Amino acid sequence: MQEKIIILDFGSQTTQLIGRRIRELNTYCEIVPYNKFPKEDKSVKGVILSGSPFSVYDEKAFKIDLKELRGKYPILGICYGAQFIAYTSGGNVEPAGSREYGRAHLDSFDKENVLFKGLKEHTQVWMSHGDTITHIPENFKKIASTDKVEIAAYQIKNEQIWGVQFHPEVFHTEDGTQILKNFVVDVCGCKQDWSAASFIETTVAQLKEQLGNDKVVLALSGGVDSSVAAVLLNRAIGKNLACVFVDHGMLRKNEFKNVMHDYECLGLNVIGIDASKKFFSELAGVTEPEHKRKIIGKGFIDVFDEEAHKIKDVKWLAQGTIYPDCIESLSITGTVIKSHHNVGGLPEKMDLKLCEPLRLLFKDEVRRVGRELGMPEHLITRHPFPGPGLAVRILGDITPEKVRILQDADDIFIQGLRDWGLYDQVWQAGVILLPVQSVGVMGDERTYERAVALRAVTSTDAMTADWAHLPYDFLGKVSNDIINKVKGVNRVTYDISSKPPSTIEWE
Ligand code: XMP
To answer: Any idea which fold 196-380 has?
Structure first.
């Protein structure tokens, strides 16, 4: 049985990061809502209590019965988690004079304590809290302080329970990973044997057992997640997996052809459907962004559904849903928000059982699994691309001619990023076709043609993003190439907005 750490989520924005860090230690962990501890699970080796937007005094604060965990598992409380353990054990938690936010240093810490093994003197930690622990009970001992926070960390004497006021999971806590490792490996005894290879081995075995001789369909998008899911399933059930790749006409230049070729080389059983005519006719004259999205979403489901039903006796629909899509996040009101499915609406429409072999993986883990499965690097490092494709990058109505212009400009930009070695430095890039025409001169003639905007961003999760600081020489070259080679464009701009307050796409 795969040993694991359970992270009880009290609603902090950094809960997912705790999970990421522990997985980086090659240790499997699961994030569950604070009140859903898996009592029956015999493979739990330790428990982490996350931070929270609440104060322990708030009426609505999330509470658990610590007795159910105490003595049974090692426990590490982080921020609110630490305050909650101290407060419910008879300690004192008070509002800090001012919110303590940002860098601090552990002026003193107990070097003998297993949690702090290998920490450097005066190590930097990251604080983000409104309340602070001002008193701990007799059976607690203080194990670290900063200049502003007297009780920055504690351990309950003779028990495997620790609390830290700072956030070891965030990047700015210099030795944060070491602290988590000390807890996970030295205290909880995890073997650090969670790897892409072990994931593939156990998942393939599980899929064989779960699916038997059943037939499965999967919608490929050309993206990393659905491609890795397909290759994994192919390894488990071979020809019983049928993949469908729908071309809605708004893919990148030559994307359909290239990706079909990649899939065939990977030995996948893929049906490619060119449905571009249907989509162009349904989108004609539509300008409202959400309306465009709806037309494409519904059209996609209809085409996929029709193809899937041509395959006899299909029992399962497989999807490349990944962990961040599934984690139930807690809103401040305490309700659990269940996230979307990858292909919105598909499972509801098709009367099939759902199979999501990547649902426990983070994005970088999906990539590692893809590499381990021998998939080509260009498929694995591919930038994210919106499901409705170039439709959300053409402002206003969509025509095949506008798509052609955008595909050509986009191809120059993306190929340029690859040629200049910049592709892997940006999270995502593309070109936007603006509903603007402006004056230019070409030779002796005046032109009145379209403007495009280049967009390239750096990000780690698309929730926030900064514009990529690409070299001027590169931007100049791409601009020249687009204006000279793409008929219909005479002006190129570069979008230097960050998210928030802007977004990555323009629509
Ligand atoms: P925004 O524009 O909200 O985009 O900053 C965040 C991420 O989501 C992608 N995106 C979409 N993906 N269907 C998708 O499948 C969509 O309608 C859609 N809109 C935005 C976007 O490319 C970025 O990665």
So the answer is: Rossmann fold (3.40.50)
Give the alpha-carbon dihedral of 299, 300, 301, 302, to 10 degrees: 50
pLDDT at position 442 is 86
> 4-187: which CATH topology?
Rossmann fold (3.40.50)
Taking only the tens place, the pLDDT of each residue in 279-289 is 999 999 999 99
Element (H, E) at 440: strand 428-442
| CB burial of residue 432 (10 Å; 0-12, 13-18, 19+) | buried
Query: For the residues 229-244, what does the mean pLDDT come to?
Result: 97
Strands (DSSP E) found in 275-400? 314-318, 329-330, 336-337, 353-355
- Residue in 29, 100, 129, 167 annotated catalytic: 167
Residue 341 — very low, low, confident or very high, per pLDDT cuts 50/70/90? very low
Give the number of the atom of ligand 1 that is nearest the alpha carbon of residue 505. Answer: 2
Mean pLDDT of 466-478: 98
Q: Is 52 exposed, middle or buried (0-12, 13-18, 19+ CB in 10 A)?
A: buried
Fold assignment, 398-494? GMP Synthetase; Chain A, domain 3 (3.30.300)
Per-residue pLDDT at 348 exceeds 50:
yes
Question: Nearest residue CA, atom 10 of ligand 1?
Answer: 386
Check if 4-187 and 196-380 are the same fold: yes
d(CA 475, CA 385): 21
Cα of 48 to ligand 1 centre, how many Å?
A: 32
Q: What is the pLDDT of residue 13?
A: 86
Residue nearest to atom 21 of ligand 1 (CA): 386
Choosing from 169, 174, 356, 449, which is the catalytic residue? 169
Q: Write the single-letter amino acid at 26.
A: N
What type of residue sits at position 288?
E
Report which of 489, 488, 501, 423 is spatially closest to residue 456, judged by C-alpha positions. Answer: 423
**94 labelled catalytic:** no
Ligand 1 site residues (CB inside 6 A) read 293, 384, 386-388, 392, 428, 462, 499, 503-505
Q: Strand 140-145 and strand 108-109: pairing?
A: antiparallel
3-state secondary structure of 229: helix
Q: Domains of the chain: which residue ranges? A: 4-187, 196-380, 398-494
CA pair distance 410, 391, nearest whole angstrom? 13
Q: How many helices, marked H, and strands, marked E, lie in the chain?
A: 14, 21
DSSP class per residue in 69-91: TTTTS-EEEETHHHHHHHHHTT-
Backbone dihedral angles phi then psi of residue 454, each to the nearest 5 degrees: -85, 140
Type of residue at 230? A
